[in-house]
Amino acid sequence: MFCREYEDNLKPLLILITIIFTSCQPTEQAPLSGDVSSKSQANTAASKWPDSTFPITIKFGSDFDSAEKQALTNATESWNQTNNNQITYFQTGLSEFSARNTLDEFRDGELGIYKLFNWPAEMPKTALAVTQIFGTRSSNGQIRIDHADVLLNYDYFDFSADDSWGYDLETVVLHELGHFLGLYHEDSSADESVMYPTISRYRLNRSPHIHDQDNLAIKYPSIVSRSIASVDVMNGEEQTPVVMILELHKDGSEIRRVK
């Protein structure tokens, strides 16, 4: 996400991290979601879950088939295995909710990964996937993440769980779960970070790299090192609800909207 000065009188935080692709040529690289403008900002951004939240229970939509569920499980386990398995970020389950058709309907008590065959009208059709995050900003600039979901655009795109036609589901979900945890895009390469902002069809990038693990250790030092007790990111600061929507389109342009 690109940094933007927050305004004071905003509604509860909604960060929409979108992955946008050009889908015509299998060999073309296409941009992932909009992000902060520099690597140092990506590493130190204050958007994070309270340490005491982990493990997060993330549920899979009931319409994923067995191969797709395995791909989702693999992606969650890959993040759990970072930093020598010192922290379990995710535990998984199955969704109990019926289909939803608007972004607001996902603001519920369930954190999930869902396939959408009816892509929300408020999102561009060119969005391959969206990580939607709700949270609260404190007066010191820290953002506490309170709710998040990963939405996959099965309406306009094909995903593959077995290396066949389409974008690799495990690769896409692994990237989106990085955003889910509060990570941003990297200016390095796909060989150095799963948060690299472009992907091609058939590109497999299924395991966080050392750079990604280092970024998590920076973001969650107390629970990765086990050196101090878990703390809330708000630290007693005055809290201000905020709302942001960020979109990156296939021509490389970014649209930032504040509700």
Could you please describe the fold and organization of this structure?
It contains five helices and 14 strands. The protein has a single domain (13-257), classed as Collagenase (Catalytic Domain), CATH 3.40.390. It is globular and about 40 Å long. With 259 residues, it is of the alpha/beta class. The two termini are 17 Å apart. Strands 1, 3, 4, 5, 6, 7, 8 and 12 form an eight-stranded mixed beta sheet that branches. A two-stranded antiparallel ribbon has the order 2-11. Helix 2 packs across helix 3. The model is unreliable at 1-11, 21-28, 30-45, 227-234, 242-246 and 248-259 (pLDDT under 50).
Layout of helices and strands, plus pairs?
Elements: E1 13-20, E2 30-31, H1 39-44, E3 47-48, E4 56-60, H2 66-80, E5 90-94, E6 111-116, E7 127-138, E8 143-153, E9 159-160, E10 167-168, H3 169-180, E11 198-199, H4 210-219, H5 221-225, E12 239-241, E13 245-248, E14 254-257
Parallel strand pairs: 3-8, 4-5, 4-6, 6-8, 9-10
Antiparallel strand pairs: 1-7, 2-11, 7-8, 7-12, 13-14
Helix pairs in contact: 2-3
